[in-house]
Predict the 3D structure of the following.
Amino acid sequence: MTAQDYDTFRSETRQWLEENCPAAMRVTPRKDGSDNVFGGTQFEFQSAEQRLWLQRMAERGWTAPDWPAKYGGGGLDAQQTKILRQEMRALGCRDPLIGHGLWMLGPALLEYGNEQQKQQHIPDIVHGRIRWCQGYSEPGAGSDLASLRCRADDMGDHYLVNGQKCWTSDGDKADWMFCLVRTDSSGPKQQGISFVLFPMDTPGVSVRPVPLLTGQAHFCDTFLENVKVPKENLVGEEGQGWTIAKALLAHERKMMASMDDTMPAPPKSLRDYAVERFGTDEQGRIADVEIRRRVIDQMMRKKSLDLTQQRAFEEGMAGDIDMRMTTIFKYAGTEYQKRNTELFMDLQGIEGCRWDAENFPEESQFPTTWMNSLAFTIAGGSSEVQLNLIAKRALELPQE
Amino acid sequence: MPLALNEEQRMLRESTQAFLRDNANVGHFRELRDNGPGWVHSTEIWQALVDLGLSGLLVAEEFGGSGFGHLALGAVFEQMGRQLTPAPLLSSCVISASIIQEMGSVTLQQELLPSMVQGELLVVPAVQGGVVGDLQRADASLTDGTNGLRLNGTRRLVMDGLLADKFLVLASNSGEPESFRMVLVEASADGVQRTEARMIDSRCYADLVFTDCPVQELLSDRDAVEVGRAVFDKGSALIAAEMLGIAEELFERTMVYLREREQFGAKIGSFQALQHRAAKLYTELQLTRSAVVDALSALDEQRDDSRAAVSMAKSLANECCRLVASESVQMHGGIGVTDELDIGLYLKRSRVCQNLFGSTGYHNNRFASCHDF
């Protein structure tokens, strides 16, 4: 496509968004994510506009803009996808749909799934008909994920799965699980892992929500007892699970690194909150020098992170990119978010710890957001695992 | 807002890299330091850089330059940082050439710029330590007398001061903000006294005393202080690019050491304590690079937010360099504090750069005021 084609695409996209995105879907969603659209059979839309916006976007495949059109995706190239996101952000359009299907399973299926699996699952993800959860961690396999023990015994035409998964995001609300299981325990731990899919209503699957610091229970313990998984639900080859898991984790990390962008900006910037709360001196500087310094640091951090994502994109397009740099995004992004939510709370003073959502809906988002940010530096590979990864992949330092 | 180099810029980066690696590297720097007068300069290296066209990257074609721009020149400074290449490129061909292009009469431009691009004439800004921040210093004053405009006062730690043929000075007769004027002083004029000043990076600096010196004013409708500030931005961004090169080089050398050095029966790079610190340095380097490239790009495009972008770049480059340099010494252990190892040469240059063209505190403040807090 020529530069002119992209310009045309941009103006057509803007016009379409202006005409089709309901006004209620251009209002900043709550920072704690409570009015996001996850889809699935159990999901209840909070408004007609939510439903309509999802419908309209899904019809164009724009819930998954860069997936192939033959499976219901938008069929856009990287530049068009970027333009769409930019235009959505410019108009304040909410994401019509989010979740593990879009972020993780979809990309993994497109890469490793067979034709039948793609046809069965991808369109359902695009339209938000099926909600997916992830069966990765186990009580004894967290950061050391490859040591997982949930076993799948070969029963001829199906596997019999037994074990326990934990930190299953929204396991109680999901329709299907993509799950890592051990099909072989004789060799190195990474080699006997397989990647399977099954519905959550399969007999033998039970879930128990685990309340977190936030009081919410996004995570579940999932118990698998003699769960029958037909062999056509094996993705890739038997024993290829670790490769797929890693690819999928890369998608998860990418998503988490830019969580801040997928989440709407808070109604006021750090700077505005700080000026409002602490006032300014006669030169217009935030009166509290320590707070001012932290606001400067955080603004620079955020700006340089955004620029680095942008630089990776542009260098990629120019064919002059050192791919090793992409290893930093999950670590740098989530650590930034943690410090940022902390500072947002500090800007409110003691009010920042207020947690009565009914009377103080705005203030009470801050503690929740902060507590969530503590999980982001752990989930999807902790910061320490990320640093190991940078040292190994990007810096090629000797391994023990 | 390009953050990736185009083909032309990449070619420049690669040819500069190859040339400096072979002809103006850290080994040459050490040799010049050990056999020179106590500060480093090489006319051969300078002439070679001129022959490569590096002295004309910010100068318009009509004066013999190429007008390639800041992003291109930044790639050059980065490579000079990597090799510790000494040259009066920043003082004469960036700062002074830009001021003359902005404020000089056509006659003056035609008279000076072509020979500056040719490297035959060195015009150096007489600003304290390459400017520590405040351009409107009252330490040099102008007087209008019967025998014309005269300059009195001092300027210390003037970059490339011993090499200069002429100095550019921003001075005033009263210290009032509007009264500052940009003047040219012949280095050989009566009343110019220059003394060698030693700095830890072994580059060329001079302390200057002006006593009733005749000067030539750059008459222009441009405000001299405003031009000074705009040119200060160029200097800050390019020093940041040099620092990025220094930090990258220090980091890569340190990674090589971590892969080779053995203690406790293992390569020390296999220790997680060091791996995590290395990974954090790498992260900082990536973020700093983006900020530096963005600042250079902002100057090329004359973007509204270029001042904030430059301040962010210099602030991040300062802190990144500080961290990488001290960690590089630490990870090399005892040999890291010897003169034998090149690490120390980079450490010293980077330490000076942290204070050239604005410290972290200065740029943080300026960044905040750009964002109205």
